[in-house]
UniProtKB/TrEMBL annotation:
UniProt domain Peptidase S24/S26A/S26B/S26C: residue ranges: 22-121
InterPro entries: LexA-like, LexA/Signal_pep-like_sf, Peptidase_S24_S26A/B/C
Organism (species): Mucilaginibacter hurinus
Superkingdom assignment: Bacteria
The protein's name in its UniProt record: Peptidase S24/S26A/S26B/S26C domain-containing protein
Length: 143
C-alpha cells in the first residue's frame, strides 16, 4: 500500500483564477419541479386539446394539488368520470375550461359537480430524437 504525502497549502500570490473563487450551487431537478412533495404528482398529457399552450400529447405534467386555481391557470380536473387538462376561466354563474378549440372547451354550470385535481406547474417536453431513443435512452421521457 502506498501512502500519498499531502501537500501543504500554499498562499497564492497575484490573481486567483475566477473558477477557483466562484462556486455554483448544485443543480437538482427536484428543487425546481417539486415545491411540496406530498402534493406534487406527474401525469402524461393524453390529448391534443392544449397544443396552443405548448402542451403536447405524451408531455409530462407536473401538478401541485395544494394550489388553488386562479383565472388563466392550467388545471387538471375530474368531470363526468374522466380527467381533463384545460385553462381555468371562471365566469359569473359558470366555469369555462378552455381548450384549443370550442369543441374541446367544457362549460360547467353551477349545478354540476366537478373536482379540481390540481394546478399544472410545468411540463416536461421531450427533445431527444427518435433515432437516439435506444438502449438505456429508450425510455427518456417515454414519449
Amino acid at each position: 500500500m502506498r501512502l500519498k504525502k499531502q501537500r501543504t497549502k500554499r498562499d497564492v500570490l497575484g490573481f486567483r483564477l475566477p473558477m477557483l473563487t466562484h462556486e455554483e450551487p448544485e443543480l437538482d431537478i427536484t428543487d425546481i419541479t417539486v415545491m411540496d412533495p406530498d402534493n406534487t404528482f406527474f401525469m402524461r398529457m393524453g390529448s391534443e386539446a392544449m397544443r396552443s399552450y405548448n402542451i403536447l400529447p405524451d408531455n409530462i405534467l407536473v401538478i401541485d394539488r395544494s394550489l388553488r386555481p386562479v383565472a388563466g391557470s392550467i388545471v387538471v380536473f375530474y368531470h363526468e368520470e374522466a380527467f381533463f387538462t384545460r385553462e381555468y376561466c371562471p365566469q359569473p354563474g359558470r366555469l369555462m375550461l378552455k381548450a384549443d378549440n370550442t369543441a374541446d372547451t367544457i362549460t360547467i354550470e353551477q349545478t354540476e359537480t366537478w373536482t379540481c385535481w390540481g394546478v399544472v406547474m410545468l411540463t416536461l417536453n421531450p427533445v431527444l430524437p427518435a433515432q437516439l431513443r435506444t438502449g438505456r435512452y429508450a425510455n427518456v421521457c417515454a414519449c
